[in-house]
Amino acid sequence: MMILFNDQIIPKDQVTISFEDRGYTFGDGVYEVFRLYRGIPFCREAHMHRLKRSLMETRIQLPYPMEKLEHYLDQLITTAPQQDGLLYLQISRGSAPRSHAFPPAAVPVVLAYCQPLPRPVQAMRSGISAITQPDLRWLRCDIKSLNLLPNVMAKQNALDHGADDAILVRNGTVTECTAANIMAIRNSIIYTHPANHLILHGITRNVVLKLAKEINREVREEAFSSKFLARADEVFITGTTTEITPVTTIDQKPVGNGRPGPITRQLQAAFEVEAGLE
To answer: Rounded CA gap, 99 and 96, in Å?
Structure first.
């Protein structure tokens, strides 16, 4: 495996990161995950825009221009043998003696790599199970930061209870899942939480909202409750690695008739066209 490490593309075993790197000691950094379809990053511009925003919000400055980073990423992709997979990019604030305040002389560390990842075809066809649990994350979920411990714990709790994922609920309001946005359909209307500080502004989420309007489905970006979710006709999650995956059971109760619904199927078909996968 080849790794982009700062401004070089080198073999994985040549990468060395200091134990004082703030990504390790504080989770002080941001990241992006790009889906590669036939070797091409899907929605690349949108991902780069979100990366810029995360860097700005965390006050991390790239060690070189964004255009150079994009050039390095292009070079990295050419080293990857797989055509379908993901590109992971991480930028930490850099290495410095441990102190909470921003270190004035630290140089951000850039790390990126590609890895194979098949499309979740079976899950998209059959649907997944989920449980609801409290959203215990911090209040800046709009920043794609390295602080993912609550997400990790929620995901593991779901697996421990025999479910595939966890639907997070904050003060009675459904926000998102552990690594994906969530949408609920009731009376043919698609609902999803507004893109504010309580959820990640998902790239696939935005694609799906656009596609929904193109196929003349009404969309409402408004918060909904866990009680509303329990009465939904269809539920699905959206994400870079999950695409559009139906949720067929929640808290061991079927969603609708317990099978992926027609609007979800319609959106899946539209997404395949959008991504050039048909």
So the answer is: 8
